[in-house]
Design goal:
about 80 residues; two-stranded antiparallel ribbon; mainly alpha; 2 helices; globular
């Protein structure tokens, strides 16, 4: 889900992605799916926070996504 305010401060939300993961739901696989979605929608630099459940793979997912987004920012230069 994406949540944002318009220039007129109207609240908006949309489903940004709903995809089936290939393989196990590891932090790495979830991070890859999120990174791909952010790239496709050109939202890499607009991500502020992630809210998730208490799953054990969340810490790995956030770490992998952080490093992947850093690498993308360096590549864009």
């Amino acid at each position: 889900m994406g949540h944002w305010l318009t220039e007129d401060f109207l609240y908006k939300e949309r489903v940004l992605e709903f995809t089936e993961l290939q393989g196990i739901h590891s932090g790495e696989n979830v991070a890859t799916a999120i990174h791909t979605m952010l790239s496709e929608l050109d939202l890499q630099e607009k991500l502020i926070t992630i809210t998730g459940d208490n799953a054990g793979n969340n810490e790995t997912m956030v770490s992998e996504l952080f490093h992947g987004l850093q690498d993308t920012a360096v590549e864009k230069g």
